[in-house]
């Protein structure tokens, strides 16, 4: 007989850690089990060196403020992303207050968020973006400048030996953050374990099968010894990164039909040179290259990992058919089904610029990658920078009523009709908005319990069920409270 538990979380990343923590807070009597196929949690996309560590609040990311055909800039998506990040900040703040997380500096640190652009067209766009955001309460404090002296004060490495006469501009928000999602993931799982959850590593889930009573049989195999086994669960969450689509397809739920994923890898240039690190205290984003996916927007970042500060530049796109860094070379092809093959072919036909971009990125050697850095930092020297491999991002491909199939950047929760199973597909800004994503999942999968849980949710996330941006006083109050608890610039 297989053991029956209330919840099985597949995958040891930030998503499973967040959902597990929420469920443990809301329903402490439930038995929660986590299965991770690697030797530890947080080793794939949640690992600090596999992502940019940006607390994505749309303070600096241009792709969240698109310019419409009439030249106006719509701030709606940027505001929505910021609202979601504020829920994460509130949740982390509550857990710090409870002692469930360690000192805030072990996983989050104040790091100004900047946008830096060159050329008349991009300067004009950034000015319009600034005008669209400056009066929004969640973007209070945003600054704009075309003055080299001011930008030099904000980020000296951007301005040293920059060509005279070149149009440029920058915005800056002091209240940005750098987040070590690897450390945060470990701390959340450590707290879950203390609260009675079972965290099992070196265990790979092979199959999901729904019983007649609506529960799920989860067939697994241990990586060490290859011992097989089975667990029965009332609810299953598949937070296995790129492998989520494999397991959701094996579950047989019809809701996954028509979905596919396209893997895009990445690399960073990194330096720990103290002289350089001391001159750059910001995450500086710019415009993406023509044909580049939004996740490949170039940025020069301060990173704080394990108490050590360094600088990263990138990402540079790579390609592998693997859905995870520790995946299989057959992943891309093994996902093909009659229900998604047309979608995948349509995406391939409609995105030639993406293929061109990937090929051009693959042809770059170390020197050419540092040449790309020099558009940000004109004084960059090849020998100061080393190359690191980042994580794999499995971008969502899905049916589209008009186009037949589209490549979607972002995250998407796929939920079974009865709410007994759900999985997450996609990537950025997922980790930063994990709390918001999981709150949506709770509402979809546990509609009969959400009202009962609401009082506790409001204790953990004071703005739960509300929007902060339309309420400036409440926004200011909550931003200040979380900043104080997390020891951040408000």
Automatic annotation (TrEMBL):
<dbReference type="InterPro" id="IPR006231">
    <property type="entry name" value="MQO"/>
</dbReference>
<keyword id="KW-0285">Flavoprotein</keyword>
<comment type="similarity">
    <text>Belongs to the MQO family.</text>
</comment>
<dbReference type="InterPro" id="IPR036188">
    <property type="entry name" value="FAD/NAD-bd_sf"/>
</dbReference>
<dbReference type="Pfam" id="PF06039">
    <property type="entry name" value="Mqo"/>
</dbReference>
<protein>
    <recommendedName>
        <fullName>Probable malate:quinone oxidoreductase</fullName>
        <ecNumber>1.1.5.4</ecNumber>
    </recommendedName>
</protein>
<keyword id="KW-0816">Tricarboxylic acid cycle</keyword>
<comment type="pathway">
    <text>Carbohydrate metabolism; tricarboxylic acid cycle; oxaloacetate from (S)-malate (quinone route): step 1/1.</text>
</comment>
<keyword id="KW-0560">Oxidoreductase</keyword>
<keyword id="KW-0274">FAD</keyword>
């Amino acid at each position: 007989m297989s053991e029956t538990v209330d919840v099985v979380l597949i995958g040891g990343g930030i998503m499973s850690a967040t959902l597990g923590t929420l469920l443990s807070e809301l329903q402490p009597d439930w038995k929660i089990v986590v299965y991770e196929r690697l030797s530890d949690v947080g080793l794939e996309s949640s690992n600090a060196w596999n992502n940019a560590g940006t607390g994505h609040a749309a303070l600096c990311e241009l792709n969240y403020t698109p310019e419409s055909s009439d030249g106006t800039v719509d701030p709606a998506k940027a505001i929505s992303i910021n609202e979601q990040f504020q829920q994460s900040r509130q949740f982390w703040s509550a857990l710090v207050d409870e002692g469930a997380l360690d000192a805030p500096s072990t996983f989050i640190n104040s790091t100004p968020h900047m946008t830096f652009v060159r050329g008349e067209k991009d300067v004009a766009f950034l000015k319009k973006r600034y005008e669209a955001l400056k009066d929004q309460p969640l973007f209070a404090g945003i600054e704009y400048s075309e003055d080299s002296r001011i930008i030099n004060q904000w980020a000296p490495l951007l301005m040293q030996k920059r060509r005279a006469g070149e149009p440029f501009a920058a915005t800056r928000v002091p209240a940005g953050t750098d987040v070590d999602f690897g450390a945060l993931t470990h701390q959340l799982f450590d707290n879950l374990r203390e609260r009675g959850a079972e965290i099992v590593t070196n265990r790979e889930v092979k199959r999901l099968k729904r019983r007649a009573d609506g529960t799920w049989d989860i067939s697994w195999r241990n990586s060490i010894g290859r011992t097989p086994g089975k667990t029965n669960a009332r609810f299953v969450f598949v937070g296995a990164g790129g492998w989520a689509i494999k397991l959701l397809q094996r579950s047989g739920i019809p809701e996954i039909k028509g979905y596919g994923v396209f893997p895009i890898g990445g690399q960073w240039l990194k330096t720990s040179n103290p002289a350089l690190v001391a001159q750059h205290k910001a995450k500086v984003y710019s415009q993406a290259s023509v044909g580049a996916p939004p996740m490949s927007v170039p940025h020069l970042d301060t990173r704080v990992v394990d108490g050590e500060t360094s600088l990263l530049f990138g990402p540079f796109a790579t390609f592998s058919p693997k859905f995870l860094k520790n995946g299989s070379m057959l992943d891309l092809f093994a996902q093909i089904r009659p229900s998604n093959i047309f979608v995948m072919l349509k995406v391939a036909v409609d995105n030639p610029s993406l293929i061109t971009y990937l090929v051009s990125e693959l042809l770059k050697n170390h020197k050419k990658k540092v040449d790309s850095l020099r558009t940000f930092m004109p004084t960059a020297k090849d020998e100061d920078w080393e190359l690191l491999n980042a994580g794999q991002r499995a971008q969502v491909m899905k049916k589209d009523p008009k186009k037949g199939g589209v490549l979607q950047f972002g995250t998407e929760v796929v939920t079974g009709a009865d709410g007994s199973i759900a999985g997450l597909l996609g990537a950025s800004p997922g980790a930063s908005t994990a709390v918001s994503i999981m709150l949506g999942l709770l509402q979809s999968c546990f509609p009969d319990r959400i009202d009962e849980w609401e009082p506790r949710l409001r204790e953990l996330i004071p703005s739960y069920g509300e929007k902060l941006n339309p309420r400036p006083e409440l926004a200011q109050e909550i931003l200040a409270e979380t900043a104080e608890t997390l020891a951040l610039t408000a």
